[in-house]
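User: What would this chain look like folded?
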Amino acid sequence: MGSCIRKHTPAKYREYHLSDFPWPFTPDLHPTAEQILNYWEQAVNHLKLDVRLNHEVIELKETEEGWLLRYKNPDGVHEQLFGYVVISVGQYTERKYKPAFPGIEDFGGKVITERDVHTLDIFDNQRVVIVGFGKSALDMATFAAKQGAQVNHVFRTAHWLMPKWILGVHFTYAL
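Assistant: Here's the prediction, encoded as structure tokens.
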């Protein structure tokens, strides 16, 4: 991160941004999807980035001249050379992927993602299984533990977790 960014950007807003484009507005401590989309739209315009949406990447090869990209869009299949490529999968714009589970029609409960949780009463007196150890899974496990009748958390590998508050200070300040 450049020194000019450090001087003008408060410490709590140094994350979630490009080093060449600090937040043009003050986001929440943990920016919302709407704030992140707003930021990216402004960053793309300010930096004059070539953003191409709804393109299916067929093949990407590194060459001596850059990246040879084969892609498909409504106009057909194309091949083009780029100096750099960023592939974005639409984390904040698309529905969350929900895998198909064999026998799901025989399951008497609901299979949901964190994006289906609009109010925490969905966990009230329920038997809940949280799958995964990412931020969303940890958030849902915390919420469910407070209200669910029984909560099980299933994951492959545990990771070290940092507390949100350390001695009364939000962890982003402590670090």
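Confidence is low (pLDDT under 50) at residues 1-8. If you want, I can go into more detail on any region.
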